[in-house]
């Protein structure tokens, strides 16, 4: 029982801190085991030199995992990050980033995901992450 993109956008707006919402993330695609979010390019998210900050990418990866878990379960449930590991491969300048979270395992109490962050303009992978979540509800 999955949800649609409009329902997922509501999960996003209702369950995240204001500073996460200020990233401007939107749900692009949902599937039974995945979610793709768009992180729009913004100079406000860039660090010195003009590259998108790693903190913005990490927050986007974390958020995409929540949306993927919610889609797989059919609704948002309380959950918390247990672990996140991120590897940055190249800088992103002037391009939106597509953040794809793919659930590799979801159980009653834990969920695991691999996240790929791709610069839309070039199609090149900017970063990869893996997350582990505790499902609380």
Précis, in short:
Helices cover 26% and strands 39% of the residues. The chain is of the alpha+beta class and 137 residues long.
Strands, helices and their partners?
Layout: H1 5-15, H2 18-21, E1 26-31, E2 34-39, H3 54-73, E3 79-88, E4 97-106, E5 110-119, E6 125-135
Antiparallel strand pairs: 1-2, 2-4, 3-6, 4-5, 5-6
Task: Describe this protein's structure.
Helices cover 26% and strands 39% of the residues. By secondary structure, the chain is an alpha+beta fold. The longest helix has 20 residues, at 54-73. The mean pLDDT is 95.
Biggest β-sheet description: 6 strands, antiparallel
Residue fraction in strands: 35-45%
The average pLDDT value, as a whole number, equals 95
Helix content: 25-40%
Q: In which order are the strands of the major sheet placed?
A: 1-2-4-5-6-3
> What does the radius of gyration come to?
14 Å
Beta strand count: 6
The H/E string reads HHEEHEEEE
Write down the overall geometry: globular
How far do the termini sit from each other? 17 Å
Number of helices: 3
Report the structural category: alpha+beta
pLDDT < 50 runs, ≥5 residues = none
